[in-house]
Amino acid sequence: MITRRNLLTRLGLLGGLGVTVNAMQLLGLNGAARAAELPPLPPGRGLHVVVLGAGITGLVAAYELEQAGYRVTLLEARDRVGGRAWTIRDGDRIEMVGEATQTAKFSDGIYMNAGPARIPSFHTGLLGYCDKFGVPLEVEVNSSRSAFIMGKDGTKIRQRVAVNDMRGHIAELLAKALNQGSLDQAISPADKARLLPFLRMYGDLAADGSFKGSERSGMTAFPGAGVTFAANGTALPLEQLLANEQLPMTLFDDALYMQATMVEPVGGMDRIHAGFDRNLRAPAIRGAEVTRIRHSAKGVDVVWRDKRSGAVRTVAADYMVCTIPFAVLKDIDADFAPATKRAIAGIRYDYSNKIAFEAPRFWEKEQIYGGISFVGGPTSLVWYPSAGLHTARGMLLACYGSGPDAAVFEKRPLPEQIEFARGVVERLHPGHGSDLVNGIVVNWHKVPYSLGPWPDFSDGKARGFEDPIDTPDFRRLLDPDGRVYFASAALSQTPGWQEGGIASARTQIAKLAARAAAEHPAA
Ligand SMILES: Cc1cc2nc3c(=O)[nH]c(=O)nc-3n(C[C@H](O)[C@H](O)[C@H](O)COP(=O)(O)OP(=O)(O)OC[C@H]3O[C@@H](n4cnc5c(N)ncnc54)[C@H](O)[C@@H]3O)c2cc1C
Protein backbone atom coordinates (compact mmCIF):
# COMPACT_ATOMS: atom_id res chain seq x y z
CA MET A 1 0.00 0.00 0.00
CA ILE A 2 1.27 3.45 -0.78
CA THR A 3 0.91 5.73 2.21
CA ARG A 4 2.02 9.31 2.29
CA ARG A 5 4.98 8.23 4.42
CA ASN A 6 6.21 5.53 2.10
CA LEU A 7 5.64 7.62 -1.01
CA LEU A 8 7.91 10.22 0.54
CA THR A 9 10.41 7.53 1.41
CA ARG A 10 10.36 6.22 -2.16
CA LEU A 11 10.88 9.70 -3.46
CA GLY A 12 13.76 10.02 -1.02
CA LEU A 13 15.39 6.93 -2.43
CA LEU A 14 15.61 8.73 -5.73
CA GLY A 15 18.23 10.92 -4.23
CA GLY A 16 18.64 14.33 -2.79
CA LEU A 17 15.34 15.78 -1.90
CA GLY A 18 13.84 18.64 -3.66
CA VAL A 19 11.79 21.62 -3.82
CA THR A 20 10.48 23.67 -6.55
CA VAL A 21 9.84 26.83 -8.11
CA ASN A 22 6.84 28.05 -9.91
CA ALA A 23 7.37 30.29 -12.87
CA MET A 24 6.67 33.45 -10.91
CA GLN A 25 9.23 32.55 -8.30
CA LEU A 26 11.74 31.79 -10.99
CA LEU A 27 11.21 35.20 -12.49
CA GLY A 28 11.71 36.70 -9.04
CA LEU A 29 14.75 34.59 -8.35
CA ASN A 30 17.18 37.35 -7.51
CA GLY A 31 14.87 38.99 -5.04
CA ALA A 32 14.18 35.72 -3.26
CA ALA A 33 17.82 34.75 -3.19
CA ARG A 34 18.99 38.03 -1.77
CA ALA A 35 16.78 37.46 1.23
CA ALA A 36 19.12 34.73 2.46
CA GLU A 37 22.09 36.67 3.79
CA LEU A 38 24.09 35.56 6.81
CA PRO A 39 23.73 37.85 9.85
CA PRO A 40 27.09 39.60 10.48
CA LEU A 41 29.66 37.66 12.52
CA PRO A 42 31.76 39.28 15.26
CA PRO A 43 34.99 40.50 13.58
CA GLY A 44 37.74 37.88 13.29
CA ARG A 45 40.63 40.36 13.63
CA GLY A 46 43.07 38.03 11.90
CA LEU A 47 42.45 34.95 14.05
CA HIS A 48 43.36 31.87 12.07
CA VAL A 49 40.82 29.16 11.23
CA VAL A 50 41.72 26.01 9.34
CA VAL A 51 38.79 24.61 7.34
CA LEU A 52 38.97 20.95 6.30
CA GLY A 53 37.18 20.05 3.05
CA ALA A 54 36.10 22.33 0.19
CA GLY A 55 32.62 21.00 -0.49
CA ILE A 56 29.79 23.50 -0.20
CA THR A 57 29.96 23.45 3.61
CA GLY A 58 33.70 24.16 3.77
CA LEU A 59 33.48 26.79 1.02
CA VAL A 60 30.71 28.67 2.81
CA ALA A 61 32.59 28.48 6.12
CA ALA A 62 35.82 29.71 4.54
CA TYR A 63 34.17 32.49 2.54
CA GLU A 64 32.06 33.85 5.38
CA LEU A 65 34.91 33.68 7.90
CA GLU A 66 37.16 35.57 5.50
CA GLN A 67 34.46 38.18 5.02
CA ALA A 68 34.35 38.62 8.80
CA GLY A 69 38.10 39.23 8.98
CA TYR A 70 39.48 35.79 9.84
CA ARG A 71 42.56 34.35 8.21
CA VAL A 72 41.50 31.06 6.68
CA THR A 73 43.42 28.04 5.41
CA LEU A 74 41.16 25.74 3.38
CA LEU A 75 42.53 22.22 2.82
CA GLU A 76 41.00 19.97 0.17
CA ALA A 77 42.17 16.41 -0.59
CA ARG A 78 40.83 16.31 -4.15
CA ASP A 79 42.33 18.27 -7.03
CA ARG A 80 39.05 20.18 -7.36
CA VAL A 81 36.64 22.00 -5.07
CA GLY A 82 32.95 21.06 -4.69
CA GLY A 83 33.18 17.69 -2.92
CA ARG A 84 30.03 15.75 -3.72
CA ALA A 85 29.02 18.48 -6.19
CA TRP A 86 30.98 16.70 -8.90
CA THR A 87 30.47 17.59 -12.53
CA ILE A 88 32.10 15.03 -14.82
CA ARG A 89 33.23 16.24 -18.24
CA ASP A 90 35.12 14.74 -21.14
CA GLY A 91 38.46 13.31 -20.04
CA ASP A 92 37.67 13.33 -16.29
CA ARG A 93 38.74 10.26 -14.39
CA ILE A 94 36.32 8.40 -12.14
CA GLU A 95 38.19 6.61 -9.40
CA MET A 96 36.33 4.31 -7.05
CA VAL A 97 37.62 2.03 -4.33
CA GLY A 98 38.11 -1.50 -5.70
CA GLU A 99 37.26 -0.57 -9.31
CA ALA A 100 39.29 0.12 -12.46
CA THR A 101 39.49 3.83 -13.24
CA GLN A 102 36.93 5.00 -15.80
CA THR A 103 37.59 7.97 -18.09
CA ALA A 104 34.61 10.01 -19.24
CA LYS A 105 34.20 10.36 -23.01
CA PHE A 106 31.66 13.08 -23.75
CA SER A 107 31.25 15.34 -26.77
CA ASP A 108 31.72 19.08 -26.35
CA GLY A 109 29.31 20.66 -23.89
CA ILE A 110 28.04 17.34 -22.51
CA TYR A 111 28.56 16.65 -18.83
CA MET A 112 27.13 14.61 -15.97
CA ASN A 113 26.26 16.00 -12.56
CA ALA A 114 27.24 12.88 -10.61
CA GLY A 115 26.05 14.40 -7.34
CA PRO A 116 23.64 17.34 -6.99
CA ALA A 117 21.77 18.22 -10.17
CA ARG A 118 18.78 20.36 -9.15
CA ILE A 119 18.09 23.33 -6.91
CA PRO A 120 14.68 24.14 -5.48
CA SER A 121 13.39 27.70 -5.28
CA PHE A 122 13.35 27.76 -1.51
CA HIS A 123 17.07 27.00 -1.21
CA THR A 124 17.69 30.69 -0.98
CA GLY A 125 21.07 30.25 0.69
CA LEU A 126 22.52 28.48 -2.35
CA LEU A 127 20.63 30.68 -4.82
CA GLY A 128 21.91 33.72 -2.93
CA TYR A 129 25.52 32.65 -3.54
CA CYS A 130 24.72 32.03 -7.25
CA ASP A 131 23.49 35.59 -7.34
CA LYS A 132 26.50 36.95 -5.45
CA PHE A 133 29.06 35.15 -7.63
CA GLY A 134 27.24 35.68 -10.94
CA VAL A 135 26.57 32.00 -11.63
CA PRO A 136 24.03 31.79 -14.49
CA LEU A 137 21.07 29.46 -13.90
CA GLU A 138 18.67 27.72 -16.25
CA VAL A 139 15.45 25.77 -15.79
CA GLU A 140 15.77 22.14 -14.77
CA VAL A 141 12.63 20.40 -15.99
CA ASN A 142 12.16 18.05 -13.07
CA SER A 143 8.88 16.58 -14.21
CA SER A 144 7.40 16.16 -17.66
CA ARG A 145 4.00 14.60 -18.30
CA SER A 146 5.39 13.37 -21.62
CA ALA A 147 7.68 10.98 -19.77
CA PHE A 148 6.59 7.45 -18.80
CA ILE A 149 5.95 5.19 -15.90
CA MET A 150 6.99 1.63 -16.74
CA GLY A 151 5.67 -1.40 -14.84
CA LYS A 152 7.60 -4.59 -14.06
CA ASP A 153 6.05 -6.30 -17.09
CA GLY A 154 7.38 -3.55 -19.34
CA THR A 155 4.00 -1.84 -19.82
CA LYS A 156 4.53 1.87 -20.37
CA ILE A 157 2.06 4.64 -19.66
CA ARG A 158 2.65 8.30 -20.45
CA GLN A 159 2.50 10.26 -17.23
CA ARG A 160 -0.16 12.57 -18.62
CA VAL A 161 -2.38 9.55 -19.26
CA ALA A 162 -1.70 8.09 -15.82
CA VAL A 163 -2.39 11.38 -14.04
CA ASN A 164 -5.51 12.40 -15.92
CA ASP A 165 -7.13 9.00 -16.40
CA MET A 166 -6.66 8.20 -12.70
CA ARG A 167 -8.22 11.53 -11.87
CA GLY A 168 -11.13 10.83 -14.21
CA HIS A 169 -11.80 7.40 -12.71
CA ILE A 170 -11.58 8.66 -9.13
CA ALA A 171 -13.87 11.60 -9.91
CA GLU A 172 -16.38 9.27 -11.57
CA LEU A 173 -16.38 6.89 -8.59
CA LEU A 174 -16.78 9.72 -6.12
CA ALA A 175 -19.57 11.31 -8.15
CA LYS A 176 -21.35 7.93 -8.24
CA ALA A 177 -21.05 7.49 -4.49
CA LEU A 178 -22.39 11.01 -3.93
CA ASN A 179 -25.30 10.48 -6.31
CA GLN A 180 -26.19 7.19 -4.62
CA GLY A 181 -26.25 8.95 -1.25
CA SER A 182 -23.44 6.73 0.12
CA LEU A 183 -21.65 9.73 1.56
CA ASP A 184 -24.63 11.61 2.93
CA GLN A 185 -23.36 11.15 6.51
CA ALA A 186 -20.02 12.69 5.56
CA ILE A 187 -21.04 15.73 3.54
CA SER A 188 -23.72 18.41 3.87
CA PRO A 189 -26.33 18.79 1.09
CA ALA A 190 -24.92 22.24 0.26
CA ASP A 191 -21.35 20.93 -0.13
CA LYS A 192 -22.61 17.94 -2.13
CA ALA A 193 -24.30 20.36 -4.53
CA ARG A 194 -21.00 22.22 -4.95
CA LEU A 195 -18.77 19.14 -5.13
CA LEU A 196 -20.62 17.41 -7.99
CA PRO A 197 -19.97 20.15 -10.58
CA PHE A 198 -16.41 20.48 -9.32
CA LEU A 199 -15.85 16.74 -9.86
CA ARG A 200 -17.13 17.05 -13.42
CA MET A 201 -14.43 19.64 -14.11
CA TYR A 202 -11.77 17.93 -12.00
CA GLY A 203 -12.13 14.59 -13.76
CA ASP A 204 -13.30 15.95 -17.16
CA LEU A 205 -16.47 13.83 -16.76
CA ALA A 206 -19.25 13.55 -19.32
CA ALA A 207 -22.62 15.21 -18.58
CA ASP A 208 -23.90 11.91 -17.13
CA GLY A 209 -20.99 11.79 -14.68
CA SER A 210 -19.11 9.02 -16.48
CA PHE A 211 -15.44 9.22 -17.46
CA LYS A 212 -14.82 8.35 -21.09
CA GLY A 213 -11.38 9.83 -21.58
CA SER A 214 -10.01 13.34 -21.84
CA GLU A 215 -8.01 15.53 -24.14
CA ARG A 216 -5.81 16.17 -21.07
CA SER A 217 -4.45 12.65 -21.51
CA GLY A 218 -3.39 13.34 -25.10
CA MET A 219 -4.99 12.99 -28.49
CA THR A 220 -5.12 10.18 -31.02
CA ALA A 221 -5.50 12.75 -33.82
CA PHE A 222 -4.31 16.33 -33.62
CA PRO A 223 -6.34 19.22 -35.02
CA GLY A 224 -5.30 20.03 -38.54
CA ALA A 225 -6.19 22.31 -41.42
CA GLY A 226 -9.77 22.77 -42.60
CA VAL A 227 -12.06 20.07 -41.27
CA THR A 228 -9.32 17.81 -39.88
CA PHE A 229 -10.74 17.42 -36.41
CA ALA A 230 -8.93 16.42 -33.24
CA ALA A 231 -9.77 13.11 -31.56
CA ASN A 232 -9.20 12.06 -27.99
CA GLY A 233 -8.18 8.61 -26.90
CA THR A 234 -10.40 6.44 -24.77
CA ALA A 235 -9.70 6.20 -21.05
CA LEU A 236 -7.24 3.57 -19.93
CA PRO A 237 -9.15 1.13 -17.72
CA LEU A 238 -8.68 1.61 -14.01
CA GLU A 239 -7.26 -1.90 -13.55
CA GLN A 240 -4.53 -1.23 -16.09
CA LEU A 241 -3.53 1.94 -14.29
CA LEU A 242 -3.52 0.25 -10.90
CA ALA A 243 -1.47 -2.67 -12.22
CA ASN A 244 1.49 -0.38 -13.00
CA GLU A 245 3.69 -0.46 -9.88
CA GLN A 246 5.09 2.98 -10.74
CA LEU A 247 1.66 4.67 -10.61
CA PRO A 248 2.39 6.39 -7.26
CA MET A 249 5.35 8.13 -8.90
CA THR A 250 2.86 10.33 -10.75
CA LEU A 251 2.66 12.15 -7.41
CA PHE A 252 6.41 12.83 -7.57
CA ASP A 253 6.15 16.50 -8.46
CA ASP A 254 3.54 17.15 -5.78
CA ALA A 255 6.27 16.64 -3.20
CA LEU A 256 7.58 20.01 -2.12
CA TYR A 257 11.14 18.89 -2.80
CA MET A 258 10.40 17.54 -6.28
CA GLN A 259 8.43 20.30 -7.92
CA ALA A 260 8.09 20.28 -11.67
CA THR A 261 10.31 23.29 -12.33
CA MET A 262 13.64 23.61 -10.63
CA VAL A 263 16.95 25.26 -11.56
CA GLU A 264 20.49 24.18 -12.41
CA PRO A 265 23.67 26.16 -13.05
CA VAL A 266 24.41 26.51 -16.76
CA GLY A 267 27.31 24.18 -17.61
CA GLY A 268 27.30 22.07 -14.44
CA MET A 269 26.67 22.19 -10.70
CA ASP A 270 30.34 22.82 -9.93
CA ARG A 271 30.08 26.32 -11.41
CA ILE A 272 28.77 27.43 -8.02
CA HIS A 273 31.77 26.04 -6.17
CA ALA A 274 34.15 27.60 -8.69
CA GLY A 275 32.37 30.89 -7.89
CA PHE A 276 33.28 30.53 -4.23
CA ASP A 277 36.87 29.63 -5.02
CA ARG A 278 37.23 32.70 -7.26
CA ASN A 279 36.02 34.89 -4.42
CA LEU A 280 38.20 33.48 -1.64
CA ARG A 281 41.21 35.61 -0.66
CA ALA A 282 43.11 32.37 -0.03
CA PRO A 283 41.72 29.80 -2.49
CA ALA A 284 41.48 26.16 -1.41
CA ILE A 285 44.77 24.26 -1.26
CA ARG A 286 44.01 21.29 -3.50
CA GLY A 287 45.57 17.85 -3.24
CA ALA A 288 45.96 18.45 0.52
CA GLU A 289 44.96 15.26 2.29
CA VAL A 290 44.49 15.72 6.02
CA THR A 291 46.03 12.82 7.94
CA ARG A 292 46.24 13.97 11.58
CA ILE A 293 44.34 16.36 13.87
CA ARG A 294 45.66 17.43 17.28
CA HIS A 295 44.63 19.98 19.87
CA SER A 296 47.48 22.20 21.01
CA ALA A 297 47.98 24.60 23.91
CA LYS A 298 46.83 27.52 21.73
CA GLY A 299 44.53 25.90 19.19
CA VAL A 300 44.73 23.03 16.72
CA ASP A 301 47.44 21.46 14.59
CA VAL A 302 46.55 19.76 11.31
CA VAL A 303 48.96 17.54 9.45
CA TRP A 304 48.37 17.16 5.73
CA ARG A 305 50.07 15.41 2.85
CA ASP A 306 50.66 17.18 -0.43
CA LYS A 307 49.50 14.46 -2.83
CA ARG A 308 51.57 15.84 -5.72
CA SER A 309 54.95 16.10 -3.99
CA GLY A 310 54.39 13.70 -1.10
CA ALA A 311 55.56 16.44 1.30
CA VAL A 312 54.00 16.42 4.77
CA ARG A 313 53.06 19.79 6.24
CA THR A 314 51.45 21.14 9.39
CA VAL A 315 49.03 24.05 9.82
CA ALA A 316 48.65 25.54 13.30
CA ALA A 317 45.45 27.53 13.75
CA ASP A 318 43.32 29.03 16.52
CA TYR A 319 40.18 27.05 15.56
CA MET A 320 39.08 24.43 13.10
CA VAL A 321 35.97 23.82 11.04
CA CYS A 322 35.94 20.18 9.95
CA THR A 323 33.59 19.29 7.06
CA ILE A 324 35.16 15.95 6.12
CA PRO A 325 32.37 13.34 5.73
CA PHE A 326 32.11 11.25 8.91
CA ALA A 327 32.57 8.00 6.98
CA VAL A 328 36.04 9.34 6.03
CA LEU A 329 36.83 11.21 9.24
CA LYS A 330 36.39 8.11 11.40
CA ASP A 331 39.66 6.72 9.95
CA ILE A 332 41.72 9.90 10.34
CA ASP A 333 44.10 10.03 13.31
CA ALA A 334 42.51 12.64 15.62
CA ASP A 335 42.68 13.28 19.38
CA PHE A 336 38.91 13.83 19.72
CA ALA A 337 37.20 12.87 22.98
CA PRO A 338 36.06 9.21 23.07
CA ALA A 339 32.38 10.27 22.93
CA THR A 340 33.07 12.33 19.80
CA LYS A 341 34.91 9.44 18.17
CA ARG A 342 32.04 7.09 18.95
CA ALA A 343 29.53 9.54 17.49
CA ILE A 344 31.59 9.95 14.29
CA ALA A 345 31.89 6.19 13.86
CA GLY A 346 28.18 5.76 14.60
CA ILE A 347 26.96 7.70 11.55
CA ARG A 348 26.31 5.24 8.73
CA TYR A 349 26.18 6.34 5.11
CA ASP A 350 23.63 5.38 2.48
CA TYR A 351 24.20 4.01 -1.04
CA SER A 352 23.42 5.77 -4.29
CA ASN A 353 24.32 5.02 -7.90
CA LYS A 354 24.19 7.05 -11.09
CA ILE A 355 24.89 5.80 -14.62
CA ALA A 356 25.18 8.20 -17.55
CA PHE A 357 25.46 7.71 -21.30
CA GLU A 358 25.89 10.02 -24.24
CA ALA A 359 23.27 9.55 -26.97
CA PRO A 360 21.51 11.26 -29.88
CA ARG A 361 18.40 12.91 -28.46
CA PHE A 362 15.92 10.18 -29.46
CA TRP A 363 13.68 11.03 -26.48
CA GLU A 364 12.96 14.48 -27.94
CA LYS A 365 11.59 12.74 -31.04
CA GLU A 366 9.16 11.09 -28.59
CA GLN A 367 8.26 14.60 -27.36
CA ILE A 368 10.09 14.32 -24.06
CA TYR A 369 11.91 17.50 -23.11
CA GLY A 370 13.47 17.03 -19.68
CA GLY A 371 11.72 15.27 -16.82
CA ILE A 372 11.97 11.72 -15.58
CA SER A 373 10.55 8.32 -16.55
CA PHE A 374 10.07 6.00 -13.58
CA VAL A 375 11.07 2.42 -14.23
CA GLY A 376 11.44 0.86 -10.76
CA GLY A 377 14.08 -1.78 -10.04
CA PRO A 378 17.63 -0.96 -9.04
CA THR A 379 18.12 1.73 -11.70
CA SER A 380 14.86 3.41 -10.63
CA LEU A 381 14.53 6.07 -13.31
CA VAL A 382 15.63 7.57 -16.60
CA TRP A 383 16.29 11.32 -16.36
CA TYR A 384 16.31 13.39 -19.54
CA PRO A 385 18.55 16.47 -19.84
CA SER A 386 17.12 19.97 -19.62
CA ALA A 387 20.24 21.59 -21.06
CA GLY A 388 20.90 21.79 -24.78
CA LEU A 389 17.37 21.06 -26.05
CA HIS A 390 17.30 20.27 -29.78
CA THR A 391 21.04 19.95 -30.09
CA ALA A 392 22.34 16.75 -31.67
CA ARG A 393 23.40 14.82 -28.58
CA GLY A 394 22.88 14.83 -24.85
CA MET A 395 23.57 13.05 -21.59
CA LEU A 396 20.96 10.51 -20.57
CA LEU A 397 20.96 9.50 -16.91
CA ALA A 398 19.89 5.88 -17.07
CA CYS A 399 20.15 5.10 -13.37
CA TYR A 400 19.71 7.04 -10.17
CA GLY A 401 18.88 4.59 -7.43
CA SER A 402 19.53 4.82 -3.71
CA GLY A 403 18.95 2.83 -0.54
CA PRO A 404 19.00 -0.97 -0.08
CA ASP A 405 18.51 -1.82 -3.79
CA ALA A 406 21.46 0.40 -4.65
CA ALA A 407 23.61 -1.38 -2.05
CA VAL A 408 23.00 -4.68 -3.87
CA PHE A 409 23.31 -3.22 -7.38
CA GLU A 410 26.70 -1.59 -6.76
CA LYS A 411 28.18 -5.03 -6.05
CA ARG A 412 27.80 -5.97 -9.72
CA PRO A 413 30.82 -5.45 -11.99
CA LEU A 414 30.73 -2.02 -13.65
CA PRO A 415 30.17 -3.38 -17.21
CA GLU A 416 27.20 -5.37 -15.89
CA GLN A 417 25.71 -2.26 -14.26
CA ILE A 418 26.09 -0.42 -17.57
CA GLU A 419 24.47 -3.21 -19.57
CA PHE A 420 21.60 -3.51 -17.10
CA ALA A 421 20.89 0.22 -17.40
CA ARG A 422 21.09 0.00 -21.20
CA GLY A 423 18.60 -2.89 -21.14
CA VAL A 424 16.11 -0.82 -19.17
CA VAL A 425 16.42 2.06 -21.65
CA GLU A 426 15.90 -0.43 -24.51
CA ARG A 427 12.65 -1.62 -22.90
CA LEU A 428 11.52 1.95 -22.33
CA HIS A 429 12.60 3.29 -25.73
CA PRO A 430 12.73 0.22 -28.01
CA GLY A 431 15.50 0.33 -30.58
CA HIS A 432 17.55 2.93 -28.71
CA GLY A 433 19.56 0.86 -26.25
CA SER A 434 22.31 0.67 -28.85
CA ASP A 435 22.32 4.47 -29.27
CA LEU A 436 23.79 4.80 -25.78
CA VAL A 437 27.57 5.15 -25.79
CA ASN A 438 30.40 5.71 -23.32
CA GLY A 439 28.50 4.72 -20.18
CA ILE A 440 30.01 5.72 -16.86
CA VAL A 441 29.06 4.53 -13.40
CA VAL A 442 29.29 6.39 -10.11
CA ASN A 443 28.70 4.19 -7.05
CA TRP A 444 28.86 6.81 -4.30
CA HIS A 445 29.70 4.38 -1.52
CA LYS A 446 32.99 3.66 -3.32
CA VAL A 447 33.97 7.27 -4.09
CA PRO A 448 37.12 8.19 -2.13
CA TYR A 449 36.78 11.18 0.22
CA SER A 450 32.98 10.67 0.22
CA LEU A 451 32.26 6.97 0.91
CA GLY A 452 28.53 7.53 0.56
CA PRO A 453 26.02 10.01 -0.83
CA TRP A 454 24.53 11.16 2.50
CA PRO A 455 24.07 9.65 5.96
CA ASP A 456 21.51 6.97 6.58
CA PHE A 457 19.69 7.78 9.81
CA SER A 458 16.98 5.18 9.19
CA ASP A 459 18.33 2.65 11.68
CA GLY A 460 16.91 -0.05 9.41
CA LYS A 461 13.37 1.42 9.54
CA ALA A 462 11.51 3.20 6.76
CA ARG A 463 12.05 6.92 7.16
CA GLY A 464 10.18 9.73 5.47
CA PHE A 465 11.82 12.97 4.49
CA GLU A 466 9.80 14.83 7.00
CA ASP A 467 10.95 12.79 9.99
CA PRO A 468 13.23 14.88 12.18
CA ILE A 469 16.85 13.76 12.48
CA ASP A 470 17.71 13.73 16.15
CA THR A 471 19.99 10.93 17.32
CA PRO A 472 22.46 11.12 20.23
CA ASP A 473 25.41 10.93 17.76
CA PHE A 474 23.92 13.73 15.67
CA ARG A 475 23.46 15.93 18.76
CA ARG A 476 26.97 15.17 20.01
CA LEU A 477 28.51 16.42 16.77
CA LEU A 478 26.64 19.72 16.88
CA ASP A 479 28.88 20.64 19.83
CA PRO A 480 32.57 21.38 19.29
CA ASP A 481 35.29 19.00 20.39
CA GLY A 482 37.73 21.43 21.97
CA ARG A 483 38.42 23.98 19.27
CA VAL A 484 37.14 21.79 16.47
CA TYR A 485 33.69 22.61 15.07
CA PHE A 486 32.00 20.01 12.87
CA ALA A 487 29.91 21.25 9.95
CA SER A 488 28.35 19.25 7.14
CA ALA A 489 25.13 18.73 5.22
CA ALA A 490 25.07 15.57 7.36
CA LEU A 491 24.54 17.79 10.40
CA SER A 492 21.41 19.41 9.04
CA GLN A 493 17.81 18.34 8.64
CA THR A 494 18.42 18.07 4.87
CA PRO A 495 21.55 15.93 4.53
CA GLY A 496 20.68 15.18 0.89
CA TRP A 497 20.78 18.84 -0.10
CA GLN A 498 23.53 21.40 -0.48
CA GLU A 499 21.36 23.88 1.40
CA GLY A 500 21.79 21.67 4.47
CA GLY A 501 25.57 22.19 4.24
CA ILE A 502 25.10 25.95 3.98
CA ALA A 503 22.82 25.99 7.02
CA SER A 504 25.27 23.87 9.01
CA ALA A 505 28.29 25.99 8.03
CA ARG A 506 26.52 29.20 9.00
CA THR A 507 25.32 27.82 12.33
CA GLN A 508 28.71 26.42 13.32
CA ILE A 509 30.80 29.44 12.31
CA ALA A 510 28.41 31.70 14.23
CA LYS A 511 29.15 29.60 17.35
CA LEU A 512 32.87 29.65 16.59
CA ALA A 513 32.92 33.42 16.08
CA ALA A 514 30.97 34.12 19.28
CA ARG A 515 33.45 32.01 21.24
CA ALA A 516 36.46 33.55 19.50
CA ALA A 517 35.17 37.02 20.41
CA ALA A 518 34.88 35.95 24.05
CA GLU A 519 38.28 34.22 24.16
CA HIS A 520 40.12 36.97 22.27
CA PRO A 521 38.54 40.27 23.38
CA ALA A 522 39.64 43.36 21.47
CA ALA A 523 42.61 45.09 23.15
C1 LIG B 1 23.88 11.39 -5.92
C2 LIG B 1 23.63 12.67 -5.19
C3 LIG B 1 22.62 13.51 -5.59
C4 LIG B 1 22.38 14.71 -4.92
N1 LIG B 1 21.43 15.56 -5.40
C5 LIG B 1 21.33 16.80 -4.88
C6 LIG B 1 20.58 17.81 -5.55
O1 LIG B 1 19.99 17.57 -6.60
N2 LIG B 1 20.55 19.05 -5.00
C7 LIG B 1 21.26 19.36 -3.87
O2 LIG B 1 21.23 20.53 -3.44
N3 LIG B 1 21.99 18.43 -3.23
C8 LIG B 1 22.06 17.16 -3.71
N4 LIG B 1 22.88 16.24 -3.14
C9 LIG B 1 23.46 16.50 -1.81
C10 LIG B 1 24.71 17.38 -1.82
O3 LIG B 1 25.61 16.95 -2.80
C11 LIG B 1 25.38 17.33 -0.46
O4 LIG B 1 24.44 17.56 0.57
C12 LIG B 1 26.47 18.38 -0.33
O5 LIG B 1 27.21 18.51 -1.51
C13 LIG B 1 27.38 18.03 0.82
O6 LIG B 1 28.33 19.05 1.01
P1 LIG B 1 29.42 18.96 2.17
O7 LIG B 1 30.34 20.10 1.96
O8 LIG B 1 28.76 18.83 3.49
O9 LIG B 1 30.21 17.59 1.93
P2 LIG B 1 31.19 17.21 0.74
O10 LIG B 1 30.72 17.80 -0.52
O11 LIG B 1 31.37 15.75 0.79
O12 LIG B 1 32.56 17.95 1.14
C14 LIG B 1 33.51 17.37 1.99
C15 LIG B 1 34.89 17.68 1.44
O13 LIG B 1 35.88 17.09 2.29
C16 LIG B 1 36.94 16.65 1.47
N5 LIG B 1 37.75 15.65 2.18
C17 LIG B 1 37.43 14.38 2.50
N6 LIG B 1 38.47 13.79 3.13
C18 LIG B 1 39.45 14.71 3.22
C19 LIG B 1 40.77 14.71 3.78
N7 LIG B 1 41.29 13.64 4.38
N8 LIG B 1 41.52 15.84 3.70
C20 LIG B 1 41.00 16.96 3.10
N9 LIG B 1 39.78 17.01 2.55
C21 LIG B 1 39.01 15.90 2.62
C22 LIG B 1 36.20 16.03 0.28
O14 LIG B 1 37.06 15.85 -0.82
C23 LIG B 1 35.10 17.06 0.06
O15 LIG B 1 35.50 18.06 -0.86
C24 LIG B 1 23.16 15.05 -3.79
C25 LIG B 1 24.21 14.20 -3.38
C26 LIG B 1 24.45 13.03 -4.08
C27 LIG B 1 25.61 12.17 -3.68
Q: How widely separated are the two ends?
A: 66 Å
Task: Provide the gyration radius in Å.
Answer: 26 Å
Strand proportion, as a percent range, falls in 15-25%
Total of domains: 3
| CATH second-level architecture of the largest domain | 3-Layer(bba) Sandwich
Which CATH class of the largest domain is shown?
Answer: Alpha Beta
Counting helices, strands and paired strands, the structural category is alpha+beta
Task: Please outline the major beta sheet.
Answer: 4 strands, parallel
Named once each, the bound ligands are: flavin-adenine dinucleotide
Overall outline:
globular
Query: Major sheet: order of its strands?
Result: 2-1-16-23
Number of helices: 16
Helix content: 25-40%
Overall average pLDDT: 93
Q: Stretches where pLDDT falls below 50 for ≥5 residues?
A: 1-8, 11-35
CATH 4th-level superfamily of the largest domain: FAD/NAD(P)-binding domain
Please count the beta strands (DSSP E, at least 2 residues each).
23
Task: Predict the CATH topology of the largest domain.
Answer: FAD/NAD(P)-binding domain
Provide the descriptors you would attach to this structure in a database record.
523 residues, alpha+beta, FAD/NAD(P)-binding domain, Polyamine Oxidase, Chain A, domain 2, de novo design (two linked rop proteins), 3 domains, four-stranded parallel sheet, four-stranded mixed sheet, 16 helices, 31% helix, globular, disordered N terminus, binds flavin-adenine dinucleotide
